[in-house]
Amino acid sequence: MDTRPATATARSVDDHRRRVEQLLRPLALRDVDDVAMTDALGRLLASDVRAPVDLPVFRNSGMDGYAVRAESVAVTPVTLPLAGVVAAGQAGQTPLPAGAVMKVMTGAPIPPGADCVVPVEDTRADDTTVTIERGRTAGDFVREPGTDVRAGDLLVSAGTLLAPRHIAALAAVGLATLPVFRRVRAAVLTTGDELMPAGTPLQPGQIYNSNGIALGAALAANGVEVVSVEHSRDDAAEFGAKLSAAVESADVVFTSGGVSKGDFEVVKDVLAARGGEFGAVAVQPGGPQGVTVVDGVPVLSFPGNPVSTMVSFEVFARPVLRELSGLLTIAKADVTLLDSVRSPAGRRQFLRGRLAADGVALASGPGSHLVAAMAQADVLIDVPAETTELAAGAIVKVWEL
């Protein structure tokens, strides 16, 4: 475990998260698109939608059965003549003769003159007559227009994340398109001469580039449209060119690697010259962080170790991105710690944990390279900066991954 003390100038986790939120929150004012109903699932509704028609649109049957006047079945059993059949989709404008019944299917129009429906299971029928064995009162199994929603009523409010239940209601009133906020668009730019794409045979000193794929997946899982995932060698000119392309297409750019104190910190070198703020945050993993605004576009720079990259995203970017996307707030809970832990003084540590019925257990050690072990975690264990030791049985806060 790294036991180096945090520097006195390190920014707190909460301060850095507020800085990131300050940069990203203006993205709430992004453009509005009209999208087809079939493409609206999971989108954030940009304005209130009011019903253009009544639902139900017309008076219809709630059961397969027989439309009748209630007064005709006040005394049962009673046998009445069958005057016709109305199927769903038919106009149903033929009036019901007095003292007769008309067969109706669920959703079919109620013929004029009828005021209730007797379910088919309460009847016996032949080709010309129907015996009603149980009477009904006026209104039974009749769906009146507007009993679900009236034309002009608010159907779905602005800011709603459209789920299947919303799509069902919006489609039922005949809307073909919906106004939704354009998704936040993000670009990912990883750096490092040592990183190689999957499927490439590794040479000595090389590793596979997991951060690009992982960040892209994390962004997509939190409602963000990923417009590009690129990689740059540790070359200032190449990084600068790829950064310019990313800024042109994205609302926010995420970089990984090149932000610490080594000899080849290309991200920090290029962006510091453009006004970027780089320094330590009192956190483990993910201490080196950077924020820059390039041509009006926020650039968030994370350290390159895989776990550091992912924890940085979870702690600093994910909460505000979910808010912008209309997704639920990340679940946090107080649970019992099943293992004892030690933590460096002055750093807020986020350990990877796995929930069990009786608490949370460590899923891995604190190392920022243990990416495979992180796959076994389903929460982050939040250890406060002032805490250096916790015994098994202590109550800790966990963040849902």
Q: How would you describe this protein?
A:
- By secondary structure, the chain is of the alpha+beta class.
- The protein contains seven helices and 28 strands.
- It has a six-stranded mixed sheet with strand order 7-4-6-5-9-8, with no helix packed on it. The protein has a six-stranded mixed sheet with strand order 16-13-17-21-20-18, sandwiched between helices.
- Helix 1 packs across helix 6 and helix 3 runs parallel beside helix 6.
- The longest helix has 20 residues.
- The protein starts with 12 loop residues before the first helix and ends with a strand.
Which percent bin holds the helix content? 10-25%
Separation of the first and last Cα atoms: 23 Å
Q: Stretches where pLDDT falls below 50 for ≥5 residues?
A: 1-7
The spatial strand order of the largest sheet comes to: 7-4-6-5-9-8
Structural class by SSE content:
alpha+beta
- Characterize the biggest β-sheet: 6 strands, mixed
Query: Roughly what is the average pLDDT, rounded to an integer?
Result: 94
Tell me the number of helical segments per DSSP (H or I, 4 or more residues long).
Answer: 7
Shape: elongated
Beta percentage is: 25-35%
The overall strand count is: 28
CA radius of gyration is: 32 Å
Layout of strands and helices, then pairs:
Elements: H1 13-24, E1 32-36, E2 49-50, E3 60-61, E4 65-68, E5 78-86, E6 101-104, E7 116-119, E8 123-125, E9 129-132, E10 142-143, E11 154-156, H2 164-172, E12 177-181, E13 185-191, E14 195-196, E15 207-208, H3 211-221, E16 225-232, H4 236-249, E17 252-256, H5 266-272, E18 277-280, E19 283-284, E20 288-294, E21 297-302, H6 306-325, E22 332-336, E23 341-342, E24 348-356, E25 359-362, H7 371-374, E26 379-383, E27 389-390, E28 395-400
Parallel strand pairs: 5-6, 13-16, 13-17, 14-15, 17-21, 19-24
Antiparallel strand pairs: 1-12, 2-11, 3-10, 4-6, 4-7, 5-9, 8-9, 18-20, 20-21, 22-28, 23-27, 24-25, 24-26, 26-28
Helix pairs in contact: 1-6, 3-6
